[in-house]
Amino acid sequence: MTLTLSTTDRAALIARHKAAIDGSLTTRLITIAVVAGLAGLFLYGLTTLEVSIWKIIHGLNNLGIFVALMLPPDPGSLARALLFVKALFETIAIAFLGTILAAIFAFPLGFIAAKNVIANRIVHFLARRSLDTIRGVDALIWALIWVNVVGLGPFAGMLAIMTSDLGAFGKLYSEAIESADRKPVEGVTSLGGSKLHEIRFGLIPQVLPVIASQVLYYIESNTRSSTIIGIVGAGGIGLYLAETIRTLEWQQVSFLILLILAAVTAIDFLSSKLRFAIIGQRAV
């Protein structure tokens, strides 16, 4: 059945909702101001950062020289290759342990920061701002801090990954909890369940697959981050990467890069399979 409106009804409908159709002057001005501000920021970045396509074109020659120096990848000796492989597994261990500890410690914080669990505005505000503060500091900065606290080595790297991910996981968990369906929670409440029962049987079964998927993704992502923090003395293969670059051992640099790429590719493949298995879909 087709619903038709007469000319009079259509005109009355447009007149009744004219403000919503046309939009207010304030909204238009805000939109124009935001677009102008973003355009101005873009132009400011182009001029301040001295962006030049000619520098890139002229630098391609230097890039070709570096690539030629890196070929073929060569660790130098078998002992050196085994040392690099051991450092790679150390990097993977830093990423895995740091991510798992962050996921565990952030689990209760996610519930504290969720509005539908903790109704107190002050507690919610303090929890969210604390997580934002931790998340706002990059893992490399945390690595520099922990290196000065506990000394050089992989322990500092693990603490840096854990601290950096703690804020990110807390925010992601709280958002997943807030977007959870209320019907299971209401069902538990109607049966006389307590607040803990609501969380255990109403919320956790909904958010657990999302949380597990996020943790698996961060393990893969932190494998790359662990390489970077190793450059500042936080252990792992990044320490050897910085050393070989400093001594201009370019063939060893390319060998280390291939090791990192192979590890990241393997972890990404496994984590994607596990993520799709957890959320109930088949990986492509």
Number of helices: 12
Radius of gyration: 26 Å
Sketch the topology as an H/E string, one letter per element: HHHHHHHHHHHH
User: Which percent band covers the strand fraction?
Assistant: under 5%
Unreliable stretches (pLDDT < 50, length at least 5) are none
CATH homologous superfamily assignment of the largest domain: MetI-like
Reported CATH architecture of the largest domain: Orthogonal Bundle
Number of domains: 2
Report how far the terminal alpha carbons are from each other: 42 Å
According to CATH, what is the topology of the largest domain? MetI-like fold
Percentage of residues assigned to helices = over 70%
CATH class of the largest domain: Mainly Alpha
The quaternary structure here is single chain
Largest sheet, if any?
none
Q: Compute the number of strand runs.
A: 0
Family: Belongs to the binding-protein-dependent transport system permease family.
Organism: Bosea psychrotolerans
Transmembrane segments: 25-46, 53-72, 92-118, 139-162, 199-219, 226-242, 254-272
Keywords: Membrane, Transmembrane, Transmembrane helix, Transport
